[in-house]
Amino acid sequence: MKLKKTLIASVVSAVALFGGQAMADTLRIGVEGAYAPFSMKEADGTLSGFDIDIANALCAELKRECELVEQEWDGMIPALIANKYDAIVASMSITEDRKKKVDFTEKYYATPTRFIAKEGATFELTREGTKGVKIGLLRGTTMQCYVEKHFPEADIKLYNTQEDVFADLVAGRLDMQINNTLQAIDGFLNTPQGKGFAFLGDDLDDVACLGEGTGIAVRKGDPLAGELSAAIKAIRANGTYQAINDKYFDIDIYGK
Amino acid sequence: MEPERTFLEYLRDISETTAPLDFMLIFDNLDRFVEGAWVTLQLTFLALLLGGLIAIPLAIARAYRKPVLNPIIWGYTYAFRGTPLLVQTYLFYFGLGQFEAVRNSFLWSPILSDPWWCVLIAFTLNTAAYTTEFLRGAIETTPRGEIEAAKAAGMSPWTRMRLVVLPSAFRRALPAYSNEVIFTLHGSVIASTVTLQDLLGVGRWLNGRYYLAYEGFVTAMLFYMAIVFMISLAFRYAEKRYLKHLRPRETEKSPRPALA
């Protein structure tokens, strides 16, 4: 009986202590973890990548404790709205559709989107040319919007993680896949897995679907958007951004 | 002057702005949910049918302790009942696809490259393992008298199995089987993790396409509930019919006592 009371008392005080602290100044950031080199998991389970470093740099700039919360991609926005974290730093493109649900900061990088298929593949990127073609992509992305809009007669396969898309492309279950070019180069084409595959067609162009760069999403009306935008500008100005950028890429991915 | 709005536009406006659930969006995509329900039902009931057919000979071999077969079947049911269905499905889908030899074999292009077949194989083997074990239990608990009576009537072992042991065992396994059917239906959501557009797959598609939190899930949930309801009704009817002998017998109503 006494043990039980002690146990309950210690649990309550622990919750009060840590819970209270978390409320005070921790910034909870939703990240994904299966989108190399932007967001990935090391062998020991820790998160790394461009998004992760940017998130940590922004927290440091805002002088707040950072808590990274992992979340599968298709639940990213719902979990933000449900208050599981306060901001999403997960290579999320700024689109009109998403703006109906969340607010965005200014962009923190901008890269084009492109298709990948077997080297020498001759699919025509038209409505007729993609009829019945198996196209793999990550569920709930700008790519889903693009492919469903432009190639509605394709056989569209939706995946939970980008790694699964690549696995099925290699296994031959997919004819092609579509995603962010930088992620595709570093996460796939330059790996042993990506041998024999190449980009198909040019950079895609459709702002309505593909958005205007990659931003940080926060709940609607949250002043955090402004603070984070200022912090992005600050780390751009003080060289922190460049250092992180150079760690992963040869070019400046901030765009124009 | 404000332009007149039709009732439908009015509904849409409420649905998008004030309603807690965007019901018009669900309504607009109902055909997709019906297609998803069809995939779910196909997978569930094909797996149950095939799994059931496999389970009958396996259960007999287990119940009669056939040498060699019995330990092998036990190993199979133990493995499939002791591991999660999700892991089994991943093994068939992602696991086999890793091997060059599998990809070059004749099984790849019509069957193993297709998520539908991978899922069906995994579900079938899984439900067959469970069904084998409780059917074995039902066969083992066949009342002795029934078998003695069958022997006394001069039935051969095969006729005995066909006319007495199995029908009697099926009846006893019926209540447990209704659980297995519902569990298989629930387990079928795993199909959505390997790109199939089953009920949950459609729900997740809707959530992903419109960045919603629960519209897709709530709709899928209602569909699942309706399916489970119909399955329960079917089993209630079956139990009433085939387990009639177990219910307390209704006696003829005694005539109402005359008022004094």
UniProtKB/TrEMBL annotation, chain A:
InterPro entries: Iontro_rcpt_C (IPR001320), SBP_3_CS (IPR018313), Solute-binding_3/MltF_N (IPR001638). CDD domains: PBP2_HisJ_LAO (cd13703). Residues 26-252 form the Solute-binding protein family 3/N-terminal domain. The keyword Zinc does not apply. Residues 26-251 form the Ionotropic glutamate receptor C-terminal domain. Pfam families: SBP_bac_3. One of its GO terms (cellular component) is cell envelope. Keywords: Signal. It is found in: Cell envelope. SUPFAM superfamilies: Periplasmic binding protein-like II (SSF53850). Residues 1-24 form the signal peptide. One of its GO terms (molecular function) is ligand-gated monoatomic ion channel activity. PANTHER family: ARGININE-BINDING EXTRACELLULAR PROTEIN ARTP (PTHR35936:SF17), MEMBRANE-BOUND LYTIC MUREIN TRANSGLYCOSYLASE F (PTHR35936). Belongs to the bacterial solute-binding protein 3 family. This is Nickel transporter.
